[in-house]
Amino acid sequence: MTQQPSCPKSSKVPSPQNRHWSSSLKDPSLFKQDVAYINGEWRPAKSGRTFKVDDPSTSDLVGTCAECDAQDARAAIQAAADAFPAFRTLTGRERAKLLRKWYDLMVENAEDIAKLITWENGKPVAEAKGEVAYAANFFEWFSEEAPRTYGDTIPATVPGNRVWTVKEPVGVCGLITPWNFPAAMITRKVAPALAAGCAVVCKVPAETPFTALAVAELGHRAGIPKGVVNIVTTLENTPEIGELLTTDPVIKKVSFTGSTGVGKLLMKQSSGTLKKLSMELGGNAPFIVFDDADLDLAVAGAIACKFRGTGQTCVCANRLYVQEGIYDEFVQKVTEKVNAFKVGNGFDEATTHGPLIHDRAIAKVEAHIKDAKSKGGKIVAGGEKLSKLGANFFQPTVIRDMTPDMAMATEETFGPVAGVFPFKTEAEVVKMANQVEVGLAGYFFSRDLQRVYRVAEALEVGMVGVNTGIISDPAAPFGGVKESGFGREGSKYGIAEYQITKTITYGGMGKPLQS
Ligand code: SIN
Q1: Homologous superfamily of 285-473
Q2: What is d(CA 469, CA 317) in angstroms, rounded to the nearest whole number?
Q3: For the whole model, what pTM was predicted?
Q4: Fold annotation for 27-281+488-500
Q5: pLDDT exceeds cutoff 50 at 398
Q6: Residue 258's CB: how many other CB atoms inside 10 A?
């Protein structure tokens, strides 16, 4: 993706390429170019500027997008503030019906949304379809939670008082989402916010804005009242809009998914107005295979977990620890599977794994491989750029004989590199697994029930996968500990992030009646 500082009006006419892309959608009107969604309307940026979004597979232009700045974001915040008083008074059941309708429209338009994801993110269409289903399920789940936001009746300590609590929406929320799940990371935040009765301003990633805008269009069609959902797009003004969302006193809550570094900055900025926060930050997931594991299950889990999204998810395995007794066999089986991958354009049906998002992602992968090689790691699969396919393709890679002094032992790679570390004992591997500052997900494979409890309890992470490499589920709480952040998304806990608990004390009831 490249910045286009001042896009002349004429460039807003779609190029033949663009016409081709959007016209291949069943509903081309889902492809929204050069406009943000503010107060229920599609508007160009006030400055008239746009930026380009490129296909990570071909580096061709996907389209141009409104380069919003603080003026646009302020208009979006104002729209949300104006919409909030009426929206919060809808009953949970009324909000549930809106979310359910949005879910239905996501399902009806799944193919088009999946195409948009593949164009701008690069993931294979089959995987993109899986993401659309995952994304839609947050609308379904929270449509079911919206009518069930109970308070408590509390026995008072003070004689004559009555105490009860009610759940109220926190207010206008600023949501900042990443490019690796262009649809699901939006719905995972927007759905609980709306279920709680909040209005939102969503700053979507510059790499994948078109999916977000299409999801917003479906929300519009579902009848979400104007101003309740606002989407601002930007490349260049990302820091400015991030600062506004974290400092404007109208915003009462910020939810961010992204890197730990940016999360810390946003948290600092939010401190001036003490906003409620949810931070879904970076991971560095340990993936442990004990000698007693079902080896084939562990291999399948490793492949699914490590290479999902070409290694670009926060919950991807980053460090594979395999016990000595099965180390060689595990490495051999994983290598065979990786060698069978078909890397390519996500629209090619044979493709199992797409490109990385941009050249910075490639650079990090290369740096981690170089570091591992220089310290004795042996590459048994991949290891090279796939330049003949395009600028952002990299061979899925397996490295054996990894050691704790290598960068991958402590830093997240966010790419298709499986570094396999040998270990001897349970105590040793748990110590290594916990020796990082982050703690999002962790996985292990074992058939020993006592070990399952012991290790699950000992891992310093927010989510543990036991005998599975895939843990994402709208019904299950998603979130981390340590520097992976705080707050939980999805599940029965997700809505609480967008609510306050108000205590009401009714005094002076006098003495109770005695029968
Ligand atoms: C993420 O990478 O942040 C989300 C992964 C998931 O929801 O499975």
Answers
A1: Aldehyde Dehydrogenase; Chain A, domain 2 (3.40.309.10)
A2: 8
A3: 0.95
A4: Aldehyde Dehydrogenase; Chain A, domain 1 (3.40.605)
A5: yes
A6: 22
